[in-house]
Amino acid sequence: xxxxxxxxxxxxxxxxxxxxxxxxxTKRTNPPGQHGPAxxxxxxxxxxxGIRLQEKQKLRFNYGVSEKQLYSYVKEARRLKGAxxxxxxxxxxxxxxxxxxxxxxTPTITSARQFVTHGHILINGKKVNIPSFQCKVSDIISIxxxxxxxxxxxxGLELNTSNLxxxxxxxxxxxxxxxxxxxxxxxxxxxxxxxxxxxxxxxRK
Length: 205
Description:
Elements: H1 8-15, H2 37-41, H3 48-63, H4 67-79, H5 84-93, H6 96-102, H7 109-117, E1 121-123, E2 126-127, E3 140-143, H8 147-159, E4 169-172, E5 177-180, H9 195-201
Antiparallel strand pairs: 1-2, 1-3, 3-5, 4-5
Helix pairs in contact: 3-9, 4-5, 5-9, 6-7
């Protein structure tokens, strides 16, 4: 399945707050659909499978990855030491597009992906235009010394009023240079999600 390009507020109403997916907010709390608010007041009849599917979709939409990509991350998380669910979140958090978003340079992960693919980012002095690039501890992330790159980064920082910076990152707003200080901890993940449900969803594959 390709990346979602439809109405984003419908997804927010269905799955809840996804900070990396969109900066838009909605006053409507009921899920989308023809039944409207009345359906939200009824007792939930979501199946066990449906609950796990919903958690998986939260992860997909928030980090902007396809189903194929997410399954690849799950397989990689299984190979690593430690809890598979936490490993999965760590792998997604260390994607370059997510790191750019967490530095506050862009308002969403989607816009961070575009920022990266347009060649505005340097990793340890070398241009990287692959959003899925896995950042490592001690990596230095900087904005290319081009007027357009610097202008876009500063505009993003001015518009972004949220404190997104995780404890594993450091960023100099003046020099526009960031650094990955340490490995990601579970507490650094901003998304309200139960990663165990996602592991269980993929357990039969």
